């Protein structure tokens, strides 16, 4: 199972000193990367904690959050 973490970062030069959040993925057990899946190469950075938590929870437990319903299917 992939490992993820959610970081809270404060930097007086970014976001007017307000905190922002970054979702990272542990790669090959060696390093943390903020580049993965649907997020872009500039990382998964959020300026709203609820949005960051939503994506963090999505990555750590996709099976319980993704719902698939078959509407029609031929044999």
How does this structure look, described?
It is built from 2 helices and 4 strands, in the order ββββαα. The protein is α+β, with helices and mostly antiparallel strands and about 80 residues long. It has one domain. Strands 1, 2, 3 and 4 form a 4-stranded antiparallel β-sheet that branches. The chain starts with a strand and ends in a 10-residue tail after the last helix. The mean pLDDT is about 75.
Distinctive features:
single chain; 75 residues; alpha+beta; four-stranded antiparallel beta sheet; 21% helix; 25% strand
**Topology as a string of helices (H) and strands (E):** EEEEHH
Number of strands: 4
Mean pLDDT: 75
What are the low-pLDDT stretches, counting only 5+ consecutive residues below 50?
none
Our count of domains comes out at 1
Proportion of strand residues: 25-35%
Radius of gyration: 16 Å
User: Which class of secondary structure composition applies to the elements?
Assistant: alpha+beta
Shape: flat
Give the fraction of residues assigned to helices. Answer: 10-25%
Distance between the termini: 34 Å
Q: Summarize the main sheet.
A: 4 strands, antiparallel
Number of helical regions? 2
